[in-house]
């Protein structure tokens, strides 16, 4: 045990603390300029420190240890280590808080039910970003701490048990780098009357997440031609198929029928997400096939941006997953798009 775990916590007057070891950070705040530790835990107090401590409003400080309790820094570290899964790093404790950051691009996953149980432990707090969003390397994702300077060790043990039971509470899943086959439908594009504007947008979205389009096939609005293109791309080794256009209920929009005819087992045709209501997700064997409505081409964020990262993270999406997306599935169409730093898909 550390020395401060053996004695009873007590406060002493600053003037009587010279030569003693400080057991907690002391924060200094200068409005609009600075907030941080003026004195750090472990600092040996000198006579020269007394006036500074008094200026910071510290008439008494803690210099002795804890009886059956755990210091805030140690408690936060224990909880953080118990909760964290792959793809994460944790910071050194600062003012009793431990932060989490992503070690690489990936999909943030939070066990929300377990997080609620963890936060129900008295004096324990654990705050995160929303689950199921793409996060970047070194992005800050969460923080944990305990409320008092010291906490009953039994509470820390309780928190650790919850973390173990529902492990992990927080993780970042890596995104697979897939070879993607792209089928662009539309007689107007196939005939050369207009240039394909859909393919470049879709390719950019895949590339941003580490995957790439291996080949693009442009077809007319014909079921047989679309089926043939899907099968060709799969035979060439495509690990995912994206089919653009022809997703509405108009009589000449035949993409859903073509995906079915190619052997697609439909998870969902339609999603409670705007933009993206006419989205289709299917599987041919274990290869995901996505039917992308026109909104993917001209909206900054749509259903595709919510589903694609989960597919790349290796998740098998069920209809129930899509049904749940209605809550938060309405895009506000802000003049300046802030996705993913907004409520869409949360």
Molecular structure report:
This protein has 346 residues and is an alpha+beta fold. The protein folds into three domains: 3-62, Molybdopterin biosynthesis moea protein, domain 2; 69-173, Alpha-Beta Complex (Aldehyde Oxidoreductase, domain 3); 179-326, Molybdenum Cofactor Biosythetic Enzyme, Chain A, CATH 3.40.980. 27% of the residues lie in helices and 27% in strands. It has eleven helices and 19 strands. The protein has helices at residues 49-55, 72-83, 112-119, 153-165, 187-190, 198-208, 223-235, 255-261, 295-298, 303-312, 319-323; strands at residues 11-13, 26-30, 34-39, 60-62, 69-71, 88-90, 97-102, 106-110, 124-128, 133-135, 140-146, 150-152, 170-174, 179-185, 212-219, 240-244, 265-269, 280-284, 287-292. Strands 15-14-16-19-18-17 form a six-stranded mixed sheet, with helices on both faces. A four-stranded antiparallel sheet has the order 6-7-11-9. A three-stranded antiparallel sheet has the order 10-8-13, covered by helices on one side. A hairpin with a 6-residue loop joins strand 6 (88-90) and strand 7. Helix 2 (72-83) runs parallel beside helix 4 and helix 7 (223-235) crosses helix 8 (255-261). It is elongated, with a radius of gyration of 27 Å. It starts with 10 loop residues before the first strand and ends in a 23-residue tail after the last helix.
């Amino acid at each position: 045990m550390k020395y401060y775990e053996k004695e009873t916590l007590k406060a002493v007057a600053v003037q009587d603390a010279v030569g003693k070891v400080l057991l907690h950070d002391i924060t200094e705040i200068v409005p609009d300029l600075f907030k941080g530790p003026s004195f750090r835990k472990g600092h040996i107090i000198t006579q020269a420190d007394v006036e500074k401590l008094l200026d910071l409003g510290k008439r008494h400080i803690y210099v002795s240890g804890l009886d059956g309790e755990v210091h805030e820094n140690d408690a936060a570290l224990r909880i953080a280590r118990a909760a964290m899964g792959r793809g994460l790093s944790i910071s050194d404790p600062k003012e009793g808080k431990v932060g989490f950051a992503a070690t690489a691009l990936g999909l943030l996953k939070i066990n929300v039910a377990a997080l609620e149980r963890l936060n129900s432990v008295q004096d324990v707090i654990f705050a995160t970003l929303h689950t199921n969003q793409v996060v970047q390397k070194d992005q800050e994702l969460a923080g944990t701490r305990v409320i008092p300077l010291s906490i009953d060790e039994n509470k820390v043990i309780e928190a650790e048990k919850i973390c173990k039971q529902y492990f992990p509470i927080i993780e970042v899943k890596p995104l697979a780098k897939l070879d993607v086959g792209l089928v662009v439908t539309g007689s107007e594009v196939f005939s050369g009357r207009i240039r394909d504007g859909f393919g470049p947008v879709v390719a950019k979205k895949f590339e941003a997440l580490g995957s790439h389009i291996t080949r693009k096939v442009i077809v007319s609005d014909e079921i047989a031609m679309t089926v043939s293109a899907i099968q060709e791309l799969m035979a060439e080794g495509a690990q995912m198929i994206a089919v653009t256009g022809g997703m509405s209920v108009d009589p000449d929009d035949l993409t859903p029928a073509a995906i079915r005819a190619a052997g697609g087992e439909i998870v969902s045709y339609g999603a409670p997400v705007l933009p993206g209501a006419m989205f289709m997700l299917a599987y041919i064997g274990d290869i995901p096939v996505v039917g992308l409505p026109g909104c993917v081409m001209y909206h900054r964020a749509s259903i595709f941006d919510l589903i694609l990262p989960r597919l790349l993270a290796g998740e098998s999406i069920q209809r129930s997953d899509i049904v749940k997306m209605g809550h938060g599935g309405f895009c506000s169409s802000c003049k300046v798009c802030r996705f993913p730093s907004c409520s869409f898909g949360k």
